[in-house]
Amino acid sequence: MSNLYDPDIDSVQFNLYRKFKQNLAQKNKIGPLFKKKQKSHYLIIEYTKIFGKNKFCEHKISDEQLHTITDQELVAKLRSEKSSNSDYFLLNRCRYKNCFFSCDKSLARHSDALMFHERDLTSQVKAIKGHKDYENVHSKLFNFDRDASQVWILWNDEANFFPDALDSFHFNWTISYNSMSEASFCTYGCLTKSDLEIGSSNFDKFVLDQFSRRKNKILWFVSNCAAKKRLKVVEKLSLYNNIEIYGKCNHYIKNNFENISLIEFGDEKCAKGSDCEKNTFEGSKFYFAFENQNCTDYITEKFWRSLDFNLIPIVFQPNKEYYEKIAPANSYIHFADFDYDSKKLSQYLNLVSKNLKIYEKFFEWKKYYKIVYQANYVEQLRFCEICEKLNNLDHQLYYDKISNWFNSQCFR
């Protein structure tokens, strides 16, 4: 894998990610080899919507970019379908910028790649009568024969149980949170160099300010009450720690936890991205960044956002090795370091909350780095990977049973 990005994005974290990619064990994929000529452009068709909406194909492709395409009929099609005035920004920071998106399915047989979104595709497949019949499903969804050189890409960032209804599609690549996917860098967030390094004096002031005004309290925003394992962990910790909880699970917790004397319940309507949330994030030293699924590499934006808002995240799944691979060193607390003992963890939280020197160590990384997790930024990084792979493709592989591949990464 080459350096995909401009120098300001090429961070230490990406170098570690690249090294990990190059040393992966053999993937569970099989397929024929073939040679493919280098092209001036690569066309990707959004064959399904993304959460019910068109995604990148609604963006306007500039005349300058269209000039790289030699097929005049294709240029005319791409011009005519663009109704949005939004700039085509997706690949503007990538080394390879010659990949284009279209919503026009009539171009599918001529495209280099088809992109499918798991949730939207699964809904389409299950709506077809006799959807377990491979031939029937494919005849309903496709009016062309699949070209062996065409790449079929499945996008799935969710860690829910994966249905076997999509196994027959024999996808070539995946975009997902799993680092073994063809595109996975910075799925929900990552570390990159800060625009301005913080000097020692300013850093000391910053840490002292955070330490002084934040309370020894754990904050938690939670709306998925079905993830019972993390609820049990929080219930045990609530016997020793002050916890402030927001979200739709307040009612469940009030009725199911044996002791809620140390729990403060906030406004259930305190929404993500609201002033209420931002103000709440300013008051606590710690945050439960507990994932609702225990899957390889499944670390979502709740972890990255807590770091960005100067909270110390407490995590317990997935295993610590996955956090070590992507997170700033000494920036979080993993429950495994305390043998999953609530009392031991509570004692350590009290120590951190009272000792400025220990507290300070959790923020050393902020001298040099910053967190990025905004969707329009992190999506760009993964599609840099996709475009790079299309430009350098010299063989074809496919996932034999993609449901097994996804489900085997999770412990349920």
N-end to C-end Cα span: 33 Å
Q: Assess the beta-strand content as a share of residues.
A: 5-15%
Write the element-wise H/E pattern from the N-terminal end onward.
Answer: HEEHHEEHHEEEHEHEHEHEHEHEHHEHEH
Overall radius of gyration:
24 Å
Organism: Brachionus plicatilis (Marine rotifer)
Protein name: Fucosyltransferase
Pathway: Protein modification; protein glycosylation
EC number: 2.4.1.-
Explain the layout of strands and helices.
Blueprint lengths: L11 H11 L6 E2 L11 E5 L16 H4 L5 H10 L17 E4 L10 E5 H9 L7 H8 L9 E6 L16 E4 L13 E4 L6 H14 L1 E7 L6 H10 L5 E4 L3 H7 L6 E3 L9 H7 L2 E5 L12 H8 L3 E4 L4 H7 L6 E2 L7 H13 L1 H6 L7 E4 L2 H17 L6 E2 L2 H6 L5
Parallel strand pairs: 2-3, 2-4, 4-5, 5-6, 8-9, 8-11, 9-10, 11-12, 12-13
Antiparallel strand pairs: 1-15, 7-14
Membrane topology: Single-pass type II membrane protein; Single-pass membrane protein
Family: Belongs to the glycosyltransferase 10 family.
Subcellular location: Golgi apparatus, Golgi stack membrane; Membrane
